[in-house]
DNA sequence: GTCTCGTTGCTGTA
DNA sequence: TACAGCAACGAGAC
């Protein structure tokens, strides 16, 4: 019996316990993996089942508005990602309906809701994609415990990544490999690589009786309590259909796929981004990474030569698995403290500087334009992420990578726990990458790709009429040029200043009142950062990475004292600098 | 202990 | 556009 017609009625009207009790039912619990293609959990749920309950639980913490957050959205996610998720759910629901099923939306704490469904619906199987994120690890233990005690079979296959991180760690002697190359060896070829994946399903068993569980349609942004909030146009729409369309477009250009080299991409390309922009679809599992990998292998087979990992497109999927593996095998991966892989560094704590970075008013147009793109689109090119992450941490501001990680985690539509933390560890030279003398310039790095500054003009329209000679360093533009460009630096757009020097000369209070005065001179700041990192590295080496809070505090004090020894040099620098 | 190598730096020079 | 020089780290292999 097909129940999808009657499900539009309130759930109470559907109560028919006999129906669920008389057949064998399964719950397909969607969390990530919001797709039909290559979904082994869904496949198993429907096998031999009279009924399948496709469930998604809306967790209010993740979805409902938090007025205290620094951007529109919930406590945990910015509005762009919430919208992307809702679009993905609508698309999934549409696909399920075509197959004779539908998506059942429930609300509440996911563990409690799931256990209630298990009790109410009398199913024999619970199926969901395995997830290595700590949140799901903890949640799944609870749900599995209940299911096991209730005699319900649990099927939780690995299908979010190419490999099972636990397998790689085991093959690597119980420890996660810490370099990409040493990851490739135990990884080898994926076991499923040469056999076809199930990419389509012709039909699904009907949904069973939902009893007294409250089921709703996929809510809109408005339904979630955001009112009639005006949504910025963004070029990425959520959902499996969109993911497969985007994948098809990307791989149809075989030459582009074959020649893809990630580090050569242009971070300032925004009309047509230099990458596939499939990351948000991989994040939510709208696209199977395994299917993507197979599609790439098909292209590689049919071209004479192609690029290889780590720079190739397939190499990008392996990077994803690399970070998943290290993250899974490392306690406290998302923190400096208690994280064995992470250098212990006495980062500064400064809310004003953090806010200037987050709110795109550092005074460096390249940095600020990237942060605007992050806010507006929830996505920016990988190298653009590098620029702003380096600037926040080891390049200029010397602020804690965890603060930047939090901002990315909230605002990115593709924010992924393992990859985001891994990249912040990398960029801050806290782990994986240690060449702290290689610093991205907030001026010349962007200029190299986009000398005219079109990217800046687009995302920072206040600078749209600034001549290209000055657009990366607008504080150097003569007053006449600034007037002509209708952008007075220090009034319409911030100028970068040497914060420690100003603090000494004018007092800290003044700084906090000058909202249009921002951040640092890159030259002096980056030198300071290098000096601090050299000292922190030396102490980490001396103490074998076992730094206590007291060690860090002492080092911080020492670094601050050393900084005070240089005011004369600094003042000299300011006199000869461009700012007057 | 020594050596090689590492997805993605910058500047100056030819 | 390509390369040297800059300053220089750690994981992993041996």
UniProtKB/TrEMBL annotation:
GO cellular component: cytoplasm; nucleus
Cofactor, free-text remark: Binds 1 FAD per subunit.
InterPro entries assigned: Cryptochr/Photolyase_FAD-bd, Cryptochrome/DNA_photolyase_1, DNA_photolyase_N
Keywords linked to the UniProt accession: FAD, Flavoprotein, Membrane, Transmembrane, Transmembrane helix
Domain Photolyase/cryptochrome alpha/beta: 24-162
GO terms, molecular function: deoxyribodipyrimidine photo-lyase activity; DNA binding; FAD binding
A single BP term in Gene Ontology: circadian regulation of gene expression
A Pfam short name: DNA_photolyase
Residue intervals passing through the bilayer: 504-522
Residues bound to FAD: 275-279, 316-323, 414-416
Keyword Kinase: no
Cofactor list: FAD
Site residues by UniProt (Electron transfer via tryptophanyl radical): 347, 401, 424
PANTHER family referenced in this protein's UniProt entry, alphabetically: CRYPTOCHROME, CRYPTOCHROME CIRCADIAN CLOCK 5 ISOFORM X1
Name of protein: Photolyase/cryptochrome alpha/beta domain-containing protein
Origin species: Populus tomentosa (Chinese white poplar)
């Amino acid at each position: 019996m097909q129940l999808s017609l009657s499900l539009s009625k309130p759930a109470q009207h559907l109560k028919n316990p006999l129906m669920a009790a008389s057949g064998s039912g399964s719950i397909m619990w969607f969390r990530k993996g919001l797709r039909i293609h290559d979904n082994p959990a869904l496949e198993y749920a429907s096998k031999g089942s009279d009924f399948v309950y496709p469930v998604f639980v809306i967790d209010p913490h993740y979805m409902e508005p938090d007025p205290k957050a620094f951007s529109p959205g919930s406590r945990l996610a910015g509005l762009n990602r919430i919208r992307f998720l809702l679009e993905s759910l609508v698309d999934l629901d549409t696909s399920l309906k075509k197959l004779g099923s539908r998506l059942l939306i429930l609300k509440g704490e996911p563990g409690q809701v799931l256990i209630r469904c298990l009790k109410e619906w009398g199913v024999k199987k619970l199926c969901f994609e395995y997830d290595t994120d700590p949140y799901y690890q903890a949640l799944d233990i609870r749900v599995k415990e209940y299911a096991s005690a209730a005699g319900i079979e649990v099927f939780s296959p690995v299908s979010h990544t190419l490999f099972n991180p636990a397998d790689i760690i085991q093959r690597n002697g119980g420890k996660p490999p810490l370099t990409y190359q040493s990851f490739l060896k135990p990884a080898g070829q994926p076991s499923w690589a040469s056999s076809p994946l199930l990419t389509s399903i012709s039909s699904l068993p009907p949904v069973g009786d939902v009893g007294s569980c409250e089921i709703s349609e996929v809510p809109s942004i408005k339904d979630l309590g955001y009112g009639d909030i005006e949504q910025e146009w963004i070029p990425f729409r959520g959902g499996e259909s969109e993911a497969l369309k985007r994948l098809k477009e990307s791989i149809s250009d075989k030459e582009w796929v074959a020649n893809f080299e990630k580090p050569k991409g242009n971070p300032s390309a925004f009309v047509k981004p230099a990458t596939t922009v499939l990351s948000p679809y991989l994040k939510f599992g709208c696209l199977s990474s395994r299917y993507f990998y197979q599609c790439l292998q098909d292209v590689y087979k049919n071209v004479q030569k192609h690029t290889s990992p780590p720079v190739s497109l397939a190499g990008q999927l392996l990077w994803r698995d690399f970070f998943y593996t290290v993250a899974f095998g490392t306690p406290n991966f998302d923190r400096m403290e208690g994280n064995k892989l992470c250098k212990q560094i006495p980062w500064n704590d400064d809310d004003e500087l953090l806010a200037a970075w987050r709110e795109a008013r550092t005074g460096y147009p390249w940095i600020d334009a990237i942060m605007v793109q992050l806010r507006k689109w929830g996505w920016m090119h990988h190298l653009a992420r590098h620029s702003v992450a380096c600037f926040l941490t080891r390049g200029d501001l010397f602020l804690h990578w965890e603060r930047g990680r939090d901002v990315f985690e909230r605002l990115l539509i593709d924010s992924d726990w393992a990859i985001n933390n891994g990249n912040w560890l990398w960029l801050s030279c806290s782990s994986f990458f240690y060449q702290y003398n290689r610093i991205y310039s907030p001026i010349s790095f962007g200029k190299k790709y986009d000398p005219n500054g079109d990217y800046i003009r687009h995302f920072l329209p206040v600078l749209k009429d600034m001549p290209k000679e000055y657009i990366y360093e607008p504080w150097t533009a003569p007053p006449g040029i600034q007037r002509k460009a209708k952008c007075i630096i220090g009034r319409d757009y911030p100028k970068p200043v040497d914060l420690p020097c100003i603090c000494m000369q004018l007092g800290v209070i003044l700084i906090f009142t000058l909202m249009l005065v921002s951040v640092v001179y890159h030259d002096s700041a980056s030198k300071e950062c290098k000096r601090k990192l050299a000292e922190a590295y030396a102490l980490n080496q001396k103490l074998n990475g076992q730094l206590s809070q007291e060690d860090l505090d002492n080092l911080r004090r020492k670094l601050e004292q050393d900084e005070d020894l240089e005011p004369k040099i600094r003042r000299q620098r300011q006199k000869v600098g461009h700012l007057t």
